[in-house]
What does this fold into?
Amino acid sequence: MKAFNFITPYRVEKPRKNGITMMLDKGMGLRVLEDLMEVSGEYIDFAKLGWGTSALHDRELIQNKAEMYLSYDVNPYPGGTLFELAYMKNKFSEFLDESDKLGFTAIEISDGSTIISPEERRNIISKTKERGFTVISEVGKKNPQDDCKLDTEDRVKLINSDINAGSDRILIEAREGGKGIGIYDECGNIKEDELEILAKTNMEKIIWEAPLKNQQTDLILKFGPNVNLGNIAPEEVTSLETLRRGLRGDTLGKLDI
Ligand SMILES: C=C(OP(=O)(O)O)C(=O)O
Ligand SMILES: O=S([O-])[O-]
It folds into this structure.
């Protein structure tokens, strides 16, 4: 039983469709991960082993980490950048084979640093789906100068086309920093117009990358405790859960929970 259970607001439990939290794992060791899972595993739905970090560790460690995540019902997956590298090297099917063998259950398809034609993107999404992975496709470019060339209409088109091709979730790029990219301005504040338009596409499927606390708070206040959020730092997972439940001043008494 949880401490103070008589005042803690309830939130939908896993497996959940909404209120998804995606955590960014930047190369944690197994013991740190075990500790984290023990205290926060129930608040995490997906764990992304950021960009190419999983390629720097022994296969056995990655397998053990994936197993640990799965034992807490957390879906582990490799960073979109690693997929992009595999794609550039013409090793997409080997990438899926290896991901499967390592125990990853989801795959991120992104073009943050590469160029992939819309047709190719749709093919890749459906092939990944056919292989039995949960598909998370990302919309946005890593370089702010390239990202700002994508207007809102382009993003809406991409979201809809990815969903039609079979994506389970659409990730809105904000990187680890969360500034000057996607729905955020240079200070990391939300660009309301952009947010409103993207939110009209399919809120259930969208995961907003929101690495900063002000972003998490604003999105929770706007869309409620069960908004899907990603790129959450491991040490911020419990903190985010308090925001979702009104257990922190920023949202206390302000949520319908
Ligand atoms: C962390 C990110 O990069 P990657 O998907 O390459 O891990 C991201 O896109 O937010
Ligand atoms: O490389 S990152 O921060 O998406």
